Amino acid sequence: MRRLFLWFAEIGNDPTLALAQAEQLRRQIPLLYGLLLINSLAIAITHASLAPPLLTFSVPLVLFGATLARLIYWSRSRPIVDPVRAQRLLRTLTVLAAVFGTAYVIWSSMLSRYGGIYEHAHVALYVSTTVIGCIFCLTPLPQAAVVVAVCVLPAFWIDVLDQQHWAFAPITVNVLLVLAVLMRVLFNAFGSFRSEIGARQELARQHAELVRLNEANRQIHIALLRARTWVRTDFNPKIFHQKFIIRDRSAVLTGSANFTENDTRKNLNHIVVIEDEVV
After folding, report:
1. H/E element, 252
2. Are 6 and 101 in contact (CB under 8 A)?
3. What is the mean pLDDT of residues 59-82?
4. Beta carbons of 239 and 192 less than 8 angstroms apart
5. What pTM did the predictor assign?
6. 189-216: buried (b, 16+ CB within 10 Å) or exposed (e) per residue?
7. Is 28:140 a contact under the CB 8 Å cutoff?
8. Where are the alpha helices (DSSP H) in the chain?
9. pLDDT above 80 (res 48)
């Protein structure tokens, strides 16, 4: 339980990962709300003449209005560059996944009390396919995907069994198997996504370090020139890692180290001093 709590608590804690997640979701969440809206509208229409207006008009009006508002919000959202805003967005989305999932599954369970076997089959198909589509859209945020699955599917299975539609029992088992595979694929995909973001972050760090070292070498070069020290510079575009310092034409210092604080005091390098005028 503690590990589960910590897993949810870490949402958005990594600034770089949070920004990447928010950017991915910015393109996928409109699809989620669009899918939810269209599928739900279809089931409301098929039950319009069977269920009370409260379930086919009043409740859908509230649910669809909230869904449409979120659809417009995400469709008009711009790229997020603030990690704090990204974290807030991810956590809000996880909470709303529970709210929307619970509201829609309760509504569909109430609708399933009306109509015949075909209408009941429509509700079962609606819940199973819609929840799978929503989970796919939430791949960059697995916590929200798990919340949707936990809020929707147990209630759906209980409703099917409570109505004693035994012909639908195999459907619930199939949905369970598909969900298990889907969640495994989702976690694998998110692991790869997270590793890619980490690799990009490390590459950016190494690039920044390279720029810093180049600037340090440039400053050293300038200092040597100002001291009227004879310096031979090789501007060959091919990389040559070895460095040389000639002292009084009688000795040469050579090795792999850059003449910087990190390389001379922290990093592992080799240095050779050759005391020979001929060399």
Report:
1. strand 251-255
2. no
3. 92
4. no
5. 0.73
6. ebeebbeebeeeeeeeeeeeeeeeeeeb
7. yes
8. 2-9, 15-46, 53, 59-75, 83-111, 117-137, 142-162, 169-226, 261-265
9. yes
Q: What are phi and psi of 81, to 5 degrees?
A: -120, -5
Quick one: which H or E segment has residue 254?
strand 251-255
Give the C-alpha separation, 76 to 26, whole Å. Answer: 9
Q: What DSSP designation does 237 have?
A: S
Place of tokens 């870490």: 10
Q: Which tens digit of pLDDT belongs to each residue from 73-132?
A: 999 988 888 999 999 999 999 999 999 999 999 999 888 888 887 888 888 888 888 998
Q: Residue 123: its pLDDT value, please?
A: 86
**Residue-level pLDDT at 41:** 93
More confident residue, 263 or 60: 60
- Among 277, 255, 278, 279, smallest CA distance to 268 is for 255
Asked if 18 and 83 count as a contact pair (C-beta separation under 8 A), the reply is yes
Nearest partner of 262 among 226, 192, 205, 209, judged by Cα: 209
Give residue 168's Cα distance to chain centre: 35
Strands 243-247 and 271-275: unpaired
The total number of residues shown for the chain amounts to 279
More confident residue, 33 or 201: 33
Angle between helices 117-137 and 83-111 (to 10 degrees): 170
What are the tens digits of pLDDT across the range 125-157?
888 889 989 999 999 999 999 999 988 888 777
Q: Which residues contact 46 (CB under 8 A, 6 or more apart)?
A: 115, 119, 122
